[in-house]
Design goal:
Helix 1 packs parallel to helix 2 (104-119) and helix 2 (104-119) runs antiparallel to helix 3. The protein has two domains: 2-171, 2-Layer Sandwich (Ribosomal Protein S5, domain 2); 178-305, GHMP kinase, C-terminal domain (Alpha-Beta Plaits, 2-Layer Sandwich), CATH 3.30.70. It is built from ten helices and 14 strands. The chain is an alpha+beta fold and 318 residues long. The protein has helices spanning 66-80, 104-119, 126-141, 149-154, 190-195, 203-221, 225-230, 238-241, 248-257, 279-292; strands at 2-9, 11-13, 22-25, 27-28, 35-42, 47-51, 88-93, 157-160, 168-171, 178-183, 262-265, 272-276, 300-305, 312-317. The protein has a five-stranded mixed sheet with strand order 6-7-5-1-14. Strands 4-13-10-12-11 form a five-stranded antiparallel sheet, covered by helices on one side. Strands 2-3-8-9 form a four-stranded antiparallel sheet. It is globular. A hairpin with a 7-residue loop joins strand 8 and strand 9. Adenosine-5'-diphosphate binds at residues 58-59, 65-67, 92, 98-100, 103-105, 108, 140-141, 189-190, 267.
Length: 318
């Protein structure tokens, strides 16, 4: 019997200045795993078991779990390629909180697709995999956006191209930056947080968005980290979404007054992130956020780096 284990990390969508087009994978410095895992084993018929810290927050019915949808989607794509899919059992270890802004659904989707692709001998290439992951993410959040699935699958910081192939390109990662990431413990639905945004963006904000993204990419490629940090402000979503996040302004004010180079909402929130280039300051901000931004016992804060690797897997044959 073959068993495949796959892991997919948490991610920050948007990173303030790149609504829907910029994202980064996350890895806590303390070595803890911040991401979902799947274990896939050969079986007589399809089944899904859910375990892990946040398993109880998911729908009890496996048919309502996105991992089951991934399996069905993958099976259809295999059949369309003339390939046979044998029955499997999937165990999802759900470690990321739902509606957290940490790309929780993306992490389950990427772990499931990556695990399935490895289990069945890599029938799909990277671009096809990303396209399938984007489709499934779109089913959950109401519109296709790759800013979580792409970095979660590939690692690093990724910029979406808007094209079919390549779907995304990798940007240089600032090695000296720490990413403090604090989840407050409450749940914010991504689709609800998208629905509160206006359909049209004023011309002045559109010009700011374009300038910031252009300068950010240039600054990363020329190692001008101060300039990169200086354009990390969100003119698209944060003005509307911060009303959903208790203590957001206080968290920003403290972080920026205590050494953060940038501060913003991770994805659609409630997780916030602070960028620092000094470990002591990052740790201090993380501690402060733990005490003042976290709302309940589900919350947590980590000092993270952006890992070069995204999803990973290993296999055992008995
Ligand atoms: N494996 C899964 N992981 C996360 N969410 C799932 C999963 N399966 C189904 N869901 C549902 O998808 C929705 C995800 O909500 P969303 O706000 O998009 O979360 P996130 O922003 O954390 O990805 C929830 O309604 C949740 O119950
Ligand atoms: N670009 C999306 C990102 C959503 O991320 P999530 O982690 O909250 O699912 C958005 O801002 O809506």
């Amino acid at each position: 019997m073959k068993t495949t284990r796959a892991y997919a990390p948490a991610s920050i969508g948007n990173i303030s200045l790149g609504f829907d087009v910029l994202g980064a994978a996350l890895q806590p410095l303390d070595g803890s795993l911040l991401g979902d895992e799947v274990i896939i084993s050969d079986a007589d018929e399809f089944g899904l078991t859910v375990a892990g810290v946040f398993a109880h927050k998911l729908p009890a019915n496996p048919d309502e779990n996105i991992v089951t949808d991934c399996y069905r989607y993958f099976s259809k794509a295999m059949l369309a390629k003339g390939l046979n899919i044998t029955p499997i059992h999937i165990t999802l270890l759900k470690s990321l909180p739902i509606g957290s802004g940490l790309g929780s659904s993306a992490s389950s989707i990427v772990a499931a697709f990556h695990g399935l692709n490895e289990h069945f001998g890599q029938p799909f290439d990277q671009t096809t995999m990303l396209t399938m992951m984007g489709e499934l993410e779109g089913q959950i959040s109401g519109s296709i956006h790759y800013d979580n699935v792409a970095p979660c699958y590939l690692g690093g910081m990724t910029l979406m191209t808007g094209q079919d192939d390549p779907v995304t390109v990798s940007l240089p990662v600032v090695k000296s930056w720490y990413w403090v990431t604090c989840y407050s413990g409450i749940s914010v639905s991504t689709s609800a947080a998208r629905n509160i945004l206006p359909n049209a963006v004023p011309l002045k904000d559109t010009l700011t968005f374009g300038r910031q993204l252009g300068i950010f990419v240039h600054a990363l490629h020329t190692d001008d980290y101060a300039m990169a940090a200086s354009v990390m402000q969100d003119v698209i979503a944060e003005p509307y979404r911060k009303s959903l996040l208790p203590a957001f302004d206080e968290a920003r004010d403290y972080s920026m007054a205590n050494g953060a180079l940038a501060f913003g909402i991770s994805g659609s929130g409630p997780t916030v992130f602070a960028v620092c280039d000094d470990y002591r300051q990052a740790n201090d901000i993380s501690n402060w956020l733990s005490e003042h931004y976290i709302q309940n016992e589900d919350g947590f804060s980590h000092v993270c780096r952006i890992p070069a690797q995204g999803a990973g897997s290993q296999q055992e044959q008995e």
